[in-house]
Amino acid sequence: MGNQMQSFPCLHRIQTMYAEFSEKERKIADYILSNPQHLVHSTINQVADDLLVADATVFRFCKRIGFSGFQAMKIALAAEAARPEIEVNEAIKDTDSEKAVAVKVFESNIQTLRDTIHTFNQKHLHDAVEFIRKANSVIFYGFGSSAIVALDAHEKFLQTDLKTAAYTDPHLQLLSAAKLTSDDAAILISHFGSDKDMLKLLHTIQENGAKTIGITQFAKSPLSQKVDVPLFTVSQETDFRSSSFSSRIVQLSIIDALYVNVMVKTKDENEEVLQKSKETYTV
């Protein structure tokens, strides 16, 4: 775990790493996520007894998520509980001016992007870029509020020499998935990662052998645990925005990061395509 994770909230670390945990580690993770306040007032022996695991197993879990030990993790959880739900974006007040509201919205978006950067996994990013770069075709699937992100991704990757498409309608998604092969890559974008239509689609895609990349908020979601490569977003709810709404900004940024990475690795092949795209936009 990189040094930048040291300032990343404990609960977010657990959520982000969840898909990588062993069975025993997930047991501890579930225990903490379900009631972090209870853990703050527990000893390592009490936690181990509750979970029927060894003290050393709990200690190793704390180390795994970047803490020096159980006590350090407890202190971090207690500090998080003492902070307001939203640090940078303090609650919007009725007395705020229009500019003050705008500043708080911008600050919240900036914090969301910063938090998500901490979740980046080098191997996952590398694998995602390679899947896309080597694919015969790249298909983007968007669900709910993430549908517009799939369309944006399709537009960006039209500026490469890759075959690309985007689908947001469940029926068309399944029709397109049935035509995929092991030479293709599918990117599924869903905030919650648990939609039944999406999971049915994912099953169809994987049956045909296509590589799968998931962009989603929750590391415990079915999508994040079933795709070949999960990429996570971090977003918080505010008084006027659901977490799925604010997550779109991060999803768009992840798509940008994938696109630029692919372009960097295929600069020579895509230079002519990119130039034609620029000329088209200036007409």
Q: Note the run of SSEs as H and E.
A: HHHHHHHHEHEHEHEHEHH
Low-confidence segments, given as residue ranges, are: 84-89
Overall pLDDT metric:
87
Strand content: 5-15%
Question: How large is the count of helical segments?
Answer: 14
Shape descriptor: globular
- How far is the first residue's CA from the last residue's CA? 47 Å
Largest sheet: 5 strands, parallel
Description:
The protein is of the alpha/beta class and 283 residues long. The chain is 58% helix and 9% strand. The chain contains 14 helices and five strands. Helix 7 (98-117) packs across helix 13 (243-265) and helix 10 (170-177) runs parallel beside helix 11. The termini are far apart.
Spell out the blueprint of helices and strands.
Layout: H1 10-17, H2 23-34, H3 36-40, H4 44-51, H5 55-64, H6 70-82, H7 98-117, H8 122-134, E1 137-142, H9 147-157, E2 163-167, H10 170-177, E3 185-189, H11 196-207, E4 211-216, H12 222-226, E5 229-232, H13 243-265, H14 267-282
A few lines on this structure:
It is built from 14 helices and 5 strands. The chain is an alpha/beta fold and 283 residues long.
Task: State the main characteristics.
283 residues; alpha/beta; 5-stranded parallel beta sheet; 58% helix
